[in-house]
Amino acid sequence: LGIKLYFSILLLALLLCPAINTNSQGFEVGDKLVNAGIGFGATWYSGTFYKTTLPPIFISADVGFKDDIGPGVLGLGGYLGMSSYKYEHAYYLGNWGWKYTSIVIAGRGTYHYDLVDNLDTYGGVLLGFRILSAKFFGDETWSTGSASSSGLAYSFFIGGRYFLSDSFAVMAELGYGIAWLQLGITIGL
Questions:
Q1: HSE on the CB side for 95, CA within 13 Å?
Q2: Which residues pair with 150 in a beta bridge?
Q3: Rounded distance between C-alpha atoms, residue 173 and residue 114, angstroms
Q4: Cβ distance 33 to 186 under 8 Å?
Q5: pTM greater than the 0.90 cutoff
Q6: CA 30 – CA 63 distance, rounded (Å)
Q7: Among 84, 106, 122, 175, whose Cα sits 20 to 30 Å from the Cα of 159?
Q8: What are phi and psi of 103, to 5 degrees?
Q9: 4-22: burial string, b at 16+ Cβ within 10 Å, e else
Q10: Longest dimension (CA), the chain
């Protein structure tokens, strides 16, 4: 999805959303929330020579699990993020380069403590796997290979969701996942 399309969908969702409900509760045991959105500040393959072919996108889930540990609520869930980049070198006889893909698959735990009405604030930890792949393309014959690797993915993050109704919110997270800043929407199930 392009950034313009993403923000158009977000604007349409906000316009179709019912009026703000001031009686909305914060995150509670049994709540099931799904987040989806786009990331800014990619954690891999960023710089002058890289072009984004798929911006960092993510989907995550959060389920209210336990509430008798302090004043907040513990949440458990999962995370899936993906981004793709291309490094291309053009010259008078053609071009060559590499296509890179990064995928993060992880579980996550969150601790929610609501500071104000309709705003769910939380911090958490993400732990899972990062899968990286690279594939050569172009006119050169000196390389025709591809490579892939995987490793541990982990992150500490903070975030917040502002509920516009009992089952719809806008959200932001800051941390090290598929991108440093993630913006999106939350749907309650």
A1: 9
A2: 131
A3: 15
A4: yes
A5: no
A6: 6
A7: 84
A8: -130, 135
A9: eebeeebeeeeeeeeeeee
A10: 67
Which residues have CB under 8 Å from 22's CB, separation 6+? 117, 118
Angle at 149 between CA 143 and CA 153, to 5 degrees: 145
The answer to whether the beta carbons of residues 142 and 114 sit under 8 Å apart is no
- Which residue do the tokens 């609520």 mark? 73
CA distance linking residue 72 with residue 58, whole number of Å: 25
10-57 pLDDT, tens digit per residue, is: 555 545 444 433 334 578 888 899 999 999 886 665 556 677 778 889
| Residue 127 near residue 157, CB atoms below 8 Å | no
Q: List the one residue out of 136, 170, 178, 134 whose CA is nearest residue 41.
A: 178
Residues in the chain: 189
For 91-111, what is each residue's pLDDT tens digit?
A: 777 778 888 899 999 999 999
- Looking up tokens 């199930």, which residue turns up? 189
